[in-house]
Amino acid sequence: MKKTDRKTERALTAALIRVCDSALKAIPGFVWITHFVNHSKFPGSLVIVSVFGTDEELRDVCGIQLDLKLSTLIQQELNALDAPIKVKAHQIRCDTEEACERDNEGNWQERYRYSQLH
Protein backbone atom coordinates (compact mmCIF):
# COMPACT_ATOMS: atom_id res chain seq x y z
CA MET A 1 0.00 0.00 0.00
CA LYS A 2 1.35 3.41 -0.95
CA LYS A 3 1.82 6.18 1.59
CA THR A 4 -1.10 8.13 0.12
CA ASP A 5 -3.28 5.00 0.35
CA ARG A 6 -2.42 4.63 4.03
CA LYS A 7 -3.27 8.27 4.66
CA THR A 8 -6.60 7.88 2.85
CA GLU A 9 -7.33 4.68 4.77
CA ARG A 10 -6.68 6.39 8.12
CA ALA A 11 -8.94 9.32 7.23
CA LEU A 12 -11.68 7.01 5.96
CA THR A 13 -11.48 4.83 9.06
CA ALA A 14 -11.67 7.85 11.37
CA ALA A 15 -14.75 9.14 9.52
CA LEU A 16 -16.46 5.76 9.74
CA ILE A 17 -15.69 5.50 13.47
CA ARG A 18 -17.48 8.82 13.97
CA VAL A 19 -20.44 7.51 11.96
CA CYS A 20 -20.45 4.31 14.00
CA ASP A 21 -20.43 6.16 17.32
CA SER A 22 -23.39 8.30 16.23
CA ALA A 23 -25.34 5.42 14.72
CA LEU A 24 -24.93 3.21 17.80
CA LYS A 25 -26.73 5.90 19.81
CA ALA A 26 -29.40 6.86 17.29
CA ILE A 27 -30.30 3.89 15.08
CA PRO A 28 -31.92 0.80 16.59
CA GLY A 29 -30.37 -2.50 15.54
CA PHE A 30 -27.20 -0.92 14.15
CA VAL A 31 -24.17 -2.97 15.20
CA TRP A 32 -21.08 -1.83 13.28
CA ILE A 33 -19.76 -0.37 10.04
CA THR A 34 -17.07 -1.56 7.68
CA HIS A 35 -15.68 -0.86 4.24
CA PHE A 36 -14.06 -2.67 1.36
CA VAL A 37 -11.77 -1.03 -1.18
CA ASN A 38 -9.23 -1.66 -3.89
CA HIS A 39 -6.95 1.36 -3.47
CA SER A 40 -5.68 1.14 -7.04
CA LYS A 41 -9.26 1.84 -8.18
CA PHE A 42 -10.24 4.28 -5.43
CA PRO A 43 -12.78 5.82 -4.91
CA GLY A 44 -14.86 3.83 -7.42
CA SER A 45 -14.14 0.52 -5.69
CA LEU A 46 -15.10 1.76 -2.22
CA VAL A 47 -18.10 0.03 -0.65
CA ILE A 48 -19.26 1.10 2.82
CA VAL A 49 -21.49 -1.34 4.68
CA SER A 50 -23.58 -0.48 7.72
CA VAL A 51 -24.30 -3.72 9.53
CA PHE A 52 -27.41 -4.54 11.53
CA GLY A 53 -27.96 -7.61 13.65
CA THR A 54 -30.98 -9.13 11.93
CA ASP A 55 -32.92 -8.83 8.71
CA GLU A 56 -35.95 -7.73 10.72
CA GLU A 57 -34.01 -4.91 12.38
CA LEU A 58 -32.86 -3.68 8.98
CA ARG A 59 -36.41 -3.86 7.57
CA ASP A 60 -37.66 -1.82 10.53
CA VAL A 61 -34.96 0.81 10.01
CA CYS A 62 -35.69 1.02 6.29
CA GLY A 63 -39.41 1.29 7.03
CA ILE A 64 -38.85 4.54 8.89
CA GLN A 65 -36.08 5.68 6.52
CA LEU A 66 -33.30 5.69 9.10
CA ASP A 67 -31.17 3.95 6.47
CA LEU A 68 -31.31 7.19 4.48
CA LYS A 69 -30.31 9.16 7.56
CA LEU A 70 -27.34 6.82 8.02
CA SER A 71 -26.33 7.21 4.37
CA THR A 72 -26.52 11.00 4.70
CA LEU A 73 -24.38 10.87 7.84
CA ILE A 74 -21.75 8.81 5.99
CA GLN A 75 -21.74 11.27 3.07
CA GLN A 76 -21.38 14.22 5.45
CA GLU A 77 -18.42 12.66 7.26
CA LEU A 78 -16.66 11.80 3.99
CA ASN A 79 -17.29 15.30 2.61
CA ALA A 80 -15.87 16.89 5.79
CA LEU A 81 -12.46 15.25 5.38
CA ASP A 82 -9.44 17.38 4.45
CA ALA A 83 -9.48 15.55 1.12
CA PRO A 84 -13.20 14.82 0.67
CA ILE A 85 -14.07 11.35 -0.58
CA LYS A 86 -16.87 11.38 -3.12
CA VAL A 87 -18.97 8.23 -3.29
CA LYS A 88 -22.12 7.38 -5.20
CA ALA A 89 -25.27 6.18 -3.46
CA HIS A 90 -24.77 2.57 -4.62
CA GLN A 91 -21.45 2.46 -2.76
CA ILE A 92 -23.19 2.86 0.60
CA ARG A 93 -25.09 -0.22 1.69
CA CYS A 94 -26.86 -1.77 4.63
CA ASP A 95 -26.57 -5.46 5.44
CA THR A 96 -27.09 -7.80 8.37
CA GLU A 97 -25.01 -10.26 10.33
CA GLU A 98 -27.91 -12.68 9.92
CA ALA A 99 -27.79 -12.51 6.11
CA CYS A 100 -24.00 -12.83 5.94
CA GLU A 101 -24.07 -15.84 8.24
CA ARG A 102 -26.87 -17.44 6.22
CA ASP A 103 -25.50 -16.70 2.75
CA ASN A 104 -21.72 -16.58 3.26
CA GLU A 105 -21.10 -18.46 6.50
CA GLY A 106 -20.15 -15.15 8.17
CA ASN A 107 -17.40 -14.37 5.65
CA TRP A 108 -17.69 -10.64 4.94
CA GLN A 109 -14.69 -10.64 2.58
CA GLU A 110 -16.42 -13.24 0.41
CA ARG A 111 -19.70 -11.36 0.58
CA TYR A 112 -18.11 -8.17 -0.76
CA ARG A 113 -15.18 -9.57 -2.76
CA TYR A 114 -16.34 -8.00 -6.03
CA SER A 115 -15.65 -4.53 -4.64
CA GLN A 116 -11.97 -5.38 -4.53
CA LEU A 117 -12.02 -6.25 -8.23
CA HIS A 118 -13.46 -2.93 -9.42
Largest sheet: 3 strands, mixed
Q: Report strand order across the widest sheet.
A: 1-2-3
What is the H/E order? HEEHHEHH
**Strand residue percentage:** 15-25%
Structural class: alpha+beta
Rounded to an integer in angstroms, the radius of gyration calculated over CA atoms is: 14 Å
Count the DSSP helices: 5
Q: Roughly how many Å apart are the termini?
A: 17 Å
Average of the residue pLDDT scores: 93
Helix fraction, binned, reads 40-55%
- Structural shape: globular
| Unreliable parts | none
Write the layout of secondary structure elements.
Layout: H1 3-26, E1 30-36, E2 47-52, H2 55-63, H3 66-79, E3 92-96, H4 97-104, H5 108-111
Please give a quick description of this structure:
This protein is an alpha+beta fold. The chain has helices spanning 3-26, 55-63, 66-79, 97-104, 108-111; strands spanning 30-36, 47-52, 92-96.
Protein traits:
globular, 118 residues
Kindly describe this structure:
With 118 residues, the chain is an alpha+beta fold. The protein is 50% helix and 15% strand. The protein has five helices and three strands. The protein has helices spanning 3-26, 55-63, 66-79, 97-104, 108-111; strands at residues 30-36, 47-52, 92-96. Strands 1-2-3 form a three-stranded mixed β-sheet. Helix 1 packs antiparallel against helix 3. The longest helix is centred in the first third of the chain and has 24 residues, at 3-26. 22% of the residues are buried.
